[in-house]
Specification:
There is one protein chain. The chain is mainly alpha-helical. The chain has 15 helices and five strands. The longest helix has 27 residues. The N terminus and C terminus are likely disordered.
Length: about 325
């Protein structure tokens, strides 16, 4: 069965997502150059960015910093407001539409041609255990360890090191090297799916009103794990039975490749999961679809193999 790259006439989600990722990567690559040329209104990284009077702080970095300092400063809180509002409204779109490491990870994934497999249950447990451990370490040693190992911070700080220091710092090179090695040797995109503290924190910020992927069973024509949506999801998620904290970044790839006929069963919605009442119910619906399809195929084969009744016309 062929997998469509995009729906004919549909919105080009992947094109615009890639455009967003590359433009933001170009922005941070040129930012230190403009700063050195006299521009002083915008400076920083994806962990902490100053745009004129507006200060933006990554929520995971802010929490880790507050734990390390054992106090919360007003500037830190105000800096997290806009990123928090974005996460509350749109979910962890930072991971799929902004993060340069997410872009690099997807390119490596495509290079290695890794196949889609069901997400094991231990991924979610690892995500929350690792995130809690990092916050505990920040509190214990008095250092914002989350900011230290943040992949988006490291990548957007690299151009600043090259421009202002004349070369990348040893710490940046070592950490990026370790992350790259992990990207190749660990299971498919495990850093983004379970270990990145930035993404894990944003996943936790989902609310019942956060934009999410909505699935309508009545118009879904594929069942089981082999659907177009699962095969094309960068994280191997199944939008037909994922929960609020499954890690979906709203990249919309599943919507883009979903067969449009008779009606597309996947769409964006706020506070409505559609027919994803429970994983048990979803699995039962998939089994029912499979049984119906098997019965239809059996009836079709029986009709094809049934000998025709000879008539007078046939004997002529």
């Amino acid at each position: 069965m062929s997998v469509p790259s995009k729906k004919k006439g549909g919105f080009r989600w992947t094109f615009w997502r890639r455009t967003s990722q590359f433009l933001l990567l170009l922005f941070f690559a040129l930012l230190p150059v403009t700063y050195r040329s006299g521009q002083v209104d915008v400076i920083g990284t994806l962990a902490s960015l100053q745009i004129g009077p507006i200060h933006l702080v990554d929520p995971a970095t802010g929490i880790s910093t507050a734990l390390a300092a054992r106090s919360v400063h007003t500037a830190l809180l105000t800096g997290m407001i806009l990123p928090l509002l974005l996460a509350f409204a749109l979910g962890p779109v930072f991971c799929s539409w902004v993060c340069p490491w997410g872009l690099l990870s997807e390119m490596i994934d495509k290079l290695l041609r890794r196949r889609a497999r069901p997400v094991p249950d231990w991924v979610a447990k690892l995500r929350w255990t690792f995130l809690g451990g990092l916050f505990a370490i920040s509190l214990g040693i008095g250092s914002p360890i989350v900011a230290t190992i943040s992949a988006p911070r490291l990548l957007t700080e690299l151009p600043m090191d090259l421009i202002f220091l004349g070369g990348a710092s040893a710490g940046t090179v070592v950490l990026l090297g370790v992350l790259l090695v992990l990207e190749f040797v660990l299971p498919r995109r495990l850093w983004c799916r379970a270990l990145c503290p930035v993404g894990s924190t944003l996943v936790l910020l989902r609310t019942p009103w956060t934009a999410t992927i909505r699935w309508k069973n009545a118009t879904c024509i594929t069942g089981g794990f082999g659907g177009h949506c699962v095969k094309n999801c960068p994280w191997n998620l199944d939008p037909r039975r994922m929960g609020k904290l499954s890690g979906c970044t709203n990249c919309a790839r599943c919507i883009e490749v979903c067969p449009p006929e008779p009606v597309t069963p996947l769409s964006f919605s706020s506070g409505d999961l559609g027919d994803r009442a429970s994983e048990k119910d979803a699995l039962e619906s998939f089994r029912r679809i499979g049984r119906n399809r098997s019965a239809e195929n059996g009836n079709r084969e029986s009709a094809t193999n049934r000998p025709r009744r000879q008539t007078g016309t046939d004997s002529l």
